[in-house]
Specification:
This protein is mainly alpha-helical and 69 residues long. It has helices at 2-8, 10-16, 20-31, 36-68. The protein is built from 4 helices and no strands. Helix 3 (20-31) runs antiparallel to helix 4. The termini are far apart.
């Protein structure tokens, strides 16, 4: 669902993920001559990296919990 939002409204995807500053900058990027396509690609890559960080954090916590036993 968040990927669809990132495709249509890249700036809104940043805001929904909790990063207001990047959302506003992305909105500025989207409405200038630079364009919508770079903003969309940036939003999708950002969301993908954030999800990868969450997965890695779960793995690290699982390893820490098993090593304590």
């Amino acid at each position: 669902m968040i990927y669809l939002v990132a495709l249509i409204f890249p700036w809104l995807a940043f805001i929904l993920k909790g990063n207001l500053g990047l959302g506003l900058f992305c909105l500025f990027l989207q409405i200038t001559i630079i364009g919508w396509l770079p903003a969309t690609i940036w939003a999708i890559v950002y969301i993908n990296n954030q999800k990868a960080d969450e997965r890695n954090e779960k793995i690290v916590n699982a390893i820490k919990n098993t090593s304590k036993r």
